[in-house]
């Protein structure tokens, strides 16, 4: 993009590729004086032409999404003289020729094949990086179909990524294309976190880049989806080598995922470049060049020179490895396996259904028990203690639960957890049947369920990666999150109706049945012995190192302190919602209003995905705290279901927007490898404040605010004329006070320079080319880079400084 700005100032007939082909002033001047026409083809030779000796081999490279052919220049420079490198300049991807139209992948592949036959002499290999892998496979397929031999195909930093199979998912993909739900800004920040496109500053350039990137992503997804849906797709005769960076977050689970390429070739190998991220074609060009040369020499039967250490693994040479399940039944007969089970979407959907049903049952019981306790006692403190018991025990055992999920059978953990929770539910049924149920029984049973859920959640999250074919893992996680929000909404809607119709006994019995269903499913299903995502560090170490990271960055310290108060304030309306609604409505009204909360979460998340957030994320993060406060005050203003529903919807929508802005700041300012530490610290602080808020909310409501607004209370003749008097109006006043406090707190945060302008004061975290194995070493490097920047940014910018875009 810097080259684009130079080209604009020279001549419209000069392309970016010309600038790199003729990199000195003399060479470019000679090229211009010769009056040569601009190259219109797709292939550009980036290695220096040789006149004396022909090349031994040529490598044709397809770039990653949104990129230019020139991204392969470092690799071209690293190749030996007897190798040529041709890079593909995709139509519509050169900003200096922005009028060009983006073309379908199949058409581009056909044009590339025609140019390869015309320009390339001798043996040819194909290399595709990231989204360019789909185009590389199609080029190789067309070359072989036309009778041209291909030495092999290299696929860097990529795996096939089809859509979920089935007519329903195809229909949903056409109606709601996945890339349309991600804003340009979110796309760009993700790429920058990986270390790519860090020099794209101009908004027009950013928009152009995102347009081409989205096009490439859609084309690659369509290509793989169609290939997997067509069982007659011809495999390549050429071997495939999957090349990944050891530290690339895009290619996690590469030890298993490289087998997915067996769908396209019978010979598949894995090569791992140590300590490399996603863009190793730039930062580890020498290692990549050696790898390509050696592998090509092996294909040609030539003894290759020594190379830097690169881990390799052959699928064809390991008898115990297994290719992914797919529409090729012959695959299993060609590659024997010691594993009898393979991941499948069917198995995942069955397990997910069981967990979804169990989630609804748990939500019904939580709803019904809360209603029962408040109706029995009339005490907000007694009700709030249920919330404490449902959260605090789980927080205390969460470090152990995470470690257990890492070390032991996830299926067994889920069975034991669900059985424990079911036993607690059964105990409740028996106590009700014998008319022996006491309040303290509820607290004990809720605590047991909290502990069981603390073990079940990380085990289920890890098990998803075991159950699902890895190419569908991202979408499976999305379905799980959507199912969680939908389950919460259904539990709220059904809970109120069921409490009125079948009572507490019936609701808890339904919960017990749903637990039996989930456990039965788990007993009938076996989990494949596949990789899953483990906790990278012990939780205690994550929190400690996260704190050490934060305290060296004043803006992060202020942000943590700001949200400690926000989380405390948030917990008060969350725990008061049920008693407040029951003070003037029925359980059915309560259920309908509570369903507005998950709906607000879904709408807020969707809005953030489409919008991308405020220009300054810190301003949005702080500003939506004010919206949360306003919504809280609305809930307390009037004893009417409409006010309560609007307020609860607003609280949860604002919370989704706050979290999205906060997470975007963390992702931008904290390196990918260190984000877990900072997030763990923030979660610990947030969790610790919630039980405290629950307890104080009960005490404040019962002992202060409710007495103030009783008939004849101290405020009955003043505020009582505005918001009403009687049962529940004290809680309404407390809601208003909390809401106003949150608004004032947001105004204070907005005026605090170190918080509002934290994105200017903190440097962006750009992924280094070489990523150390030791996170502590990486944190020391981040601290080292912070010192000189901190000196130059000691003064926070004023509002006037922000009237113009300035480079800090």
Task: Provide the descriptors you would attach to this structure in a database record.
808 residues, mainly alpha, 8-stranded mixed β-sheet, 62% helix
Rounded mean pLDDT is: 86
Helix content: 55-70%
Query: What overall geometry do the principal axes of the alpha carbons give?
Result: elongated
| Strand content range | 5-15%
Low-confidence stretches: 317-339, 789-808
How far apart the termini lie comes to 20 Å
- Strand-pairing-aware structural class: mainly alpha
Description:
The chain contains 31 helices and 8 strands. It has helices at residues 2-10, 16-21, 25-33, 73-78, 105-119, 132-145, 167-175, 184-194, 203-229, 254-257, 280-283, 285-299, 330-334, 345-377, 380-407, 410-433, 439-467, 473-501, 503-524, 539-551, 554-582, 587-594, 596-611, 617-637, 641-669, 675-708, 720-723, 729-751, 753-756, 758-761, 775-792, and strands at 43-45, 57-62, 83-88, 124-129, 153-156, 240-245, 268-273, 311-314. Strands 1-3-2-4-5-6-7-8 form an 8-stranded mixed β-sheet, with helices on both faces. Helix 14 (345-377) packs antiparallel against helix 17 (439-467), helix 15 (380-407) packs antiparallel against helix 26 (675-708) and helix 18 packs antiparallel against helix 23 (596-611).
In short:
The protein is mainly alpha-helical and 808 residues long. The protein has helices spanning 2-10, 16-21, 25-33, 73-78, 105-119, 132-145, 167-175, 184-194, 203-229, 254-257, 280-283, 285-299, 330-334, 345-377, 380-407, 410-433, 439-467, 473-501, 503-524, 539-551, 554-582, 587-594, 596-611, 617-637, 641-669, 675-708, 720-723, 729-751, 753-756, 758-761, 775-792; strands spanning 43-45, 57-62, 83-88, 124-129, 153-156, 240-245, 268-273, 311-314.
């Amino acid at each position: 993009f810097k080259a684009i700005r130079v080209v604009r100032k020279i001549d419209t007939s000069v392309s970016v590729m010309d600038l790199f082909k003729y990199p000195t002033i003399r060479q470019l001047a000679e090229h211009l004086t010769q009056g040569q026409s601009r190259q219109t083809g797709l292939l550009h030779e980036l290695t220096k032409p040789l006149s004396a000796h022909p090349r031994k081999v040529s490598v044709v490279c397809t770039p990653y999404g949104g990129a230019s052919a020139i991204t392969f220049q470092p690799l071209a420079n690293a190749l030996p003289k007897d190798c040529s490198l041709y890079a593909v300049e995709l139509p519509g991807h050169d900003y200096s020729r922005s009028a060009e139209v983006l073309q379908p992948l199949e058409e581009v592949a056909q044009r590339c094949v025609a140019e390869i036959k015309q320009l390339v002499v001798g043996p040819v290999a194909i290399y595709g990086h990231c989204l360019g892998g789909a185009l590389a496979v199609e080029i190789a397929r067309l070359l072989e179909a036309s009778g041209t031999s291909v030495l092999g195909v290299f696929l860097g930093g990529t795996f096939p990524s089809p859509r979920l199979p089935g007519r329903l998912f195809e229909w949903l993909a056409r109606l709601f294309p996945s890339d349309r739900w991600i804003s340009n800004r979110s796309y760009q920040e993700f790429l920058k976190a990986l270390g790519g496109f860090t020099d794209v500053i101009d908004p027009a350039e950013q928009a152009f880049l995102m347009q081409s990137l989205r096009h490439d992503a859609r084309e690659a997804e369509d290509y793989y989806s169609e290939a997997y849906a067509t069982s007659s797709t011809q495999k390549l005769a050429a071997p495939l080598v999957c090349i990944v960076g050891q530290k690339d977050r895009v290619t996690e689970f590469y030890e298993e995922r490289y087998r997915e390429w067996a769908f396209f070739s019978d010979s598949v190998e894995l090569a791992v470049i140590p300590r490399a991220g996603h863009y190793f074609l730039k930062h580890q060009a020498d290692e990549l060049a050696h790898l390509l040369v050696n592998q090509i020499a092996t294909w040609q039967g030539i003894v290759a020179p020594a190379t830097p250490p690169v881990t390799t693994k052959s699928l064809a040479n390991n008898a115990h490895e297994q290719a992914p399940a797919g529409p090729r039944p012959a695959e299993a007969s060609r590659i024997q396996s010691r594993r009898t089970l393979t991941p499948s979407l069917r198995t995942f959907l069955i397990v997910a259904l069981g967990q979804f049903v169990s989630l609804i049952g748990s939500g019904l019981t939580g709803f019904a028990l809360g209603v029962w306790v408040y109706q029995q006692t009339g005490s907000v403190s007694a009700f709030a203690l249920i919330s404490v018991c449902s959260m605090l025990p789980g927080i205390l055992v969460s470090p152990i639960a995470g470690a257990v999920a890492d070390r032991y059978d996830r299926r067994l953990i889920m069975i034991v957890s669900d059985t424990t929770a079911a036993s607690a539910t059964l105990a409740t049924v028996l106590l009700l049947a014998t008319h022996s149920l006491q309040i303290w029984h509820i607290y004990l049973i809720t605590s047991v369920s909290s502990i069981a859920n603390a073990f079940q959640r990380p085990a289920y999250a890890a098990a998803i990666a075991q159950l699902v074919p890895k190419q569908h893992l991202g979408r499976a996680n999305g379905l799980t999150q959507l199912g969680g929000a939908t389950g919460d909404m259904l539990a709220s809607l059904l809970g109120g109706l069921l409490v009125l119709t079948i009572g507490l006994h019936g609701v808890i019995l339904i919960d017990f049945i749903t637990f039996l269903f989930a456990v039965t499913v788990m007993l009938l299903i076996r989990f494949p012995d596949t990789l899953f995502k483990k906790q990278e560090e012990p939780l205690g170490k994550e929190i400690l190192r996260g704190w050490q990271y934060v305290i060296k960055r004043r803006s992060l310290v202020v942000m943590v302190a700001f949200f400690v108060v926000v989380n405390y304030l948030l917990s008060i309306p969350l725990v008061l919602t049920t008693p407040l609604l029951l003070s003037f409505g029925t359980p059915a009204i309560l259920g309908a209003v509570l369903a507005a909360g998950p709906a607000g979460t879904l709408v807020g998340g969707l809005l953030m995905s489409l919008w991308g957030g405020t220009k300054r994320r810190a301003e949005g993060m702080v500003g939506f705290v004010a919206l949360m406060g306003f919504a809280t005050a609305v809930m307390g203003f009037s004893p009417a279901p409409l006010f309560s529903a609007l307020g609860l919807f607003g609280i949860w929508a604002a919370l989704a927007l706050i979290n999205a802005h906060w997470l975007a700041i963390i992702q931008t300012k904290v390196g990918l490898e260190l984000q877990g530490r900072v997030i763990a610290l923030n979660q610990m602080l947030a969790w610790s404040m919630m039980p405290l808020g629950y307890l104080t909310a009960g005490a404040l409501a019962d002992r202060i605010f409710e007495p103030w607004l009783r008939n004849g209370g101290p405020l009955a003749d003043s505020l009582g004329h505005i918001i009403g008097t009687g049962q529940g109006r004290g809680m309404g006043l407390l809601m208003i006070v909390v809401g106003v406090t949150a608004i004032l707190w947001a105004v204070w945060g907005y005026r605090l320079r170190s918080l509002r302008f934290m994105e200017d004061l903190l440097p962006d975290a750009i992924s280094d080319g070489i990523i150390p194995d030791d996170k502590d070493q990486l944190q020391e490097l981040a601290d080292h880079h912070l010192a000189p920047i901190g000196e130059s940014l000691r003064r926070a910018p004023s509002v006037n400084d922000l009237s113009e875009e300035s480079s800090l």
